[in-house]
């Protein structure tokens, strides 16, 4: 069995560590922060992509990203209670559309007649 480099320990079902990933980030008041997502069951998860092209195809051309090794991404998100990493997700739901204000209609019985 081949020795793993740098002490990387793969998940039981993975054949090898994912290695360097493109991790989506957002800018905040203290610098860059990894974006966290939710699985279909609502569990918080970190996400990484094996190529910048896959990241852009899934999250859009304007999504910023940094390179992190999978163990570094896990170490970064573990204090937040996030224990899973999804590599190369193929589906993401679109961001919710902004809500358009609806005119408030006054029922006829509420109107006063002179």
Task: Figure out the total of helices.
Answer: 2
Uncertain spans: none
What gap, in angstroms, lies between the N and C termini?
A: 91 Å
Rounded mean pLDDT score = 80
Question: How would you sum up this structure, described in words?
Answer:
It is a single chain. The protein is an alpha+beta fold. It is 14% helix and 25% strand. Strands 2-1-5 form a three-stranded antiparallel β-sheet. Strands 3-4-6 form a three-stranded mixed β-sheet, with helices on one face. The chain is elongated.
At a glance:
The chain has 114 residues and is an alpha+beta fold. 14% of the residues lie in helices and 25% in strands.
Question: Notable features of this structure?
Answer:
single chain, alpha+beta, 3-stranded antiparallel beta sheet, 6 strands, elongated
Give the topology, please.
Blueprint: E1 20-28, E2 31-34, E3 36-38, E4 44-48, H1 52-59, E5 65-69, H2 70-77, E6 85-87
Parallel strand pairs: 4-6
Antiparallel strand pairs: 1-2, 1-5, 3-4
């Amino acid at each position: 069995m081949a020795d793993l480099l740098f002490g990387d320990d793969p998940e039981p079902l993975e054949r090898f560590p994912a290695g360097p990933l493109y991790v989506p980030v957002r800018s905040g008041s203290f610098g860059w922060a990894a974006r966290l997502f939710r699985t279909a069951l609502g569990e918080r998860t970190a996400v990484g992509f094996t190529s910048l092209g896959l990241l852009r195809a899934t999250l859009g051309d304007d999504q910023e990203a940094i390179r992190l090794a999978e163990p570094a991404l896990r170490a970064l998100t573990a204090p937040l209670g996030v224990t899973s990493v999804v590599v190369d997700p193929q589906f993401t739901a679109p961001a919710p559309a902004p809500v358009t204000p609806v005119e408030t209609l006054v029922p006829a019985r509420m109107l006063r007649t002179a």
